[in-house]
Amino acid sequence: MKKGLITLLIGLYFSSILNSQIKESDSFYKSKIESFIIMMQSDSTLNYISRLKDGDYKKLLLKIVDTENATYKDYNIFLTEISNKEEINYNLISNYINDFVKPPLDRNKINLDYTLIKQNQVTTLRNNGNLDEATTQNKILEDYINKFSKTDKQYKIQKSYVSIHNAVMNFIQKDFNKGKEILDNCLKIAREYNDIPLEIASFFYLSDFLVVERKLDEFIDVNERSLQLEKKQPSKTSYYAGTIGHLINAYAFKGGYDKRVEQLLEELYNDPISQKDSYSLYAQYLSTLDLNSETKKNIFKKFGSNNALEFCEIITEASKNKLNDNDFYHVLSESSKLLEKDNFYKEAIKYKDQAIVLTRKIYSEDLTKSLANFKTQQAIKSKEVEILNAKERSNLYIIIGSLVTGLFLISVFVIIKKRKQSKLLMIKNHQINDALKEKELLIKEVHHRVKNNFQIVSSLLELQSKDIEDEKALALASESQNRIKSMALIHQKLYQNENGLIDFDEYIRLLVKEISILYKSNTKIDTKIITDDLFFDIDTAIPLGLIVNELITNAYKYAFVKHKKGQLNIAINKVGDGNYKLEVSDNGSGLDNNFNINKVKSLGLRLVNRLAKQLQGSFSFMNNNGANFEIIFKDVHARKRIN
């Protein structure tokens, strides 16, 4: 009896393993087939379909490959299945739609499966930043719909869907009145014919216009109504996650709605399809909570983490292969903010750097790169098929490859032995020269890229500052942007110069020009610059440049407010072996007589004081017909001698 039971259990165990392998094999073949169909490799597709387990999806794939028997409904099911898969470039999917999903010839009735395919194509292309192609495909859809009666119910509904793209383009072009008018009309049609998906789509894009109009309460109301409409649908629309994101941001901005924010986060997280969209929103919400908040601890526990660092590592790992670059950027960016809030400064910078790199990738990919990517994918897929078909001959190939490799190594050894020592030395000298040139180019490229990264951060600050209403916060963002520009200017000079040093006279003149543009006023300001043709390396130029930036900015902000004519003097002189003196003075009203550098609250002057210490120098000031700041500092050689 016991032996029979043991035999049965063993049989069940191996049966479960076999079923698991069959499922994995089916998943593997299914993924391959979908890729080959999109890349129009029919021979490879049929080869894999024959290995696929029988079922409804196999029948569907056979119809898609056959094309003549495939219906628009079949194409819709297939395209919905593959559109969310990161391993398939959407440009390939879009090209496939253009080649195989042509407008129906039947003029009696609008084919809703075809219109849905084109609507999803237009939306995805637009979300991926391919606005020109999205507009082209939207025009193809509009031309198809225009062939039907204008009094038909579906004509009006489908025409509204087409017009949503135009509303979005109006928003991008800042024609807000026209865009909002289009969406209001879409809402009217949606309610007249009880088309809930159209109403949800209209609400979603209307939210953007309400943000511009700063109508926070109406923004919340529209998105809450949209969420209620989602519950009436048999399945969630593509706007579901975005709508919840809108509400979380709105409630967090308004304040006092923590319970509602937590409910929305939980709702998004508990939906398997949209769970990945909740990660960046959780990070964003956590960054608003105190370090010892019980809510924060509970959320960490929910994700199996003990602190912000572990939480960020978990959500980054969980989302990096499931989200597109744009959504993954938000995960990295919000993680960086959370880490900074919880005092993980080093890790916060690391995440911010990753976000910046990803931003460059998102905004630097062009058509040439997309075409190259398409060709590369074709080559890789073809190679995989070739390897799969050649498995039976693999042992022979290994033997042949080993023999060829052996002969090649012997030949190389013989050739090397025959080379003369003089020729080897000549080659080595040539390699050393090439390496030096390559190193010089690499160093220049590094400075160029650092400059570009600073410009990207500056652009991000500029974009973010557009949503800031608080004047103090806006001023801080502007000052941070100005500091970043001053550092970017240093790296620009390093990239342009051959000797790796910065001409500080030229740098200060450019910096003054930038700041004068930023702080335009009616006061005429006469600027006198004396630097004795000084050149500094990057370790001295960066902190010194920031010091000069802060002091010049300080003068423009406070010294010349009530003057009809301003005088700004900037001088850097060598005062000893490796020692220099920087003087910045103005003819303003000066500082308070009780002013204490060590107790100053101004971020800019605190920064100057700290940077002066970094240069192993001192920072002092006096009132002499205006504010007069003096910094004594050492160059890099003098600092090294002390260290």
TrEMBL record:
Reactions this protein catalyses: ATP + protein L-histidine = ADP + protein N-phospho-L-histidine
InterPro entries membership: HATPase_C_sf, HATPase_dom, Sig_transdc_His_kin_sub2_dim/P, TPR-like_helical_dom_sf
Group of enzyme by EC: transferase
Domain Histidine kinase/HSP90-like ATPase, chain residue ranges per copy: 539-637
SUPFAM superfamilies from the UniProt entry: ATPase domain of HSP90 chaperone/DNA topoisomerase II/histidine kinase
GO molecular function: kinase activity
Pfam families: HATPase_c (PF02518), HisKA_2 (PF07568)
Organism domain of life: Bacteria
Keyword set, alphabetical order: ATP-binding, Kinase, Membrane, Nucleotide-binding, Phosphoprotein, Transferase, Transmembrane, Transmembrane helix
Transmembrane annotation, as ranges: 396-416
Kinase recorded as keyword: yes
Database matches in Gene3D superfamilies: Histidine kinase-like ATPase, C-terminal domain, PAS domain, Tetratricopeptide repeat domain
EC number from the UniProt entry: 2.7.13.3
Record-linked PANTHER family: ETHYLENE RESPONSE SENSOR PROTEIN, TWO-COMPONENT SYSTEM SENSOR PROTEIN
Protein name in UniProt: histidine kinase
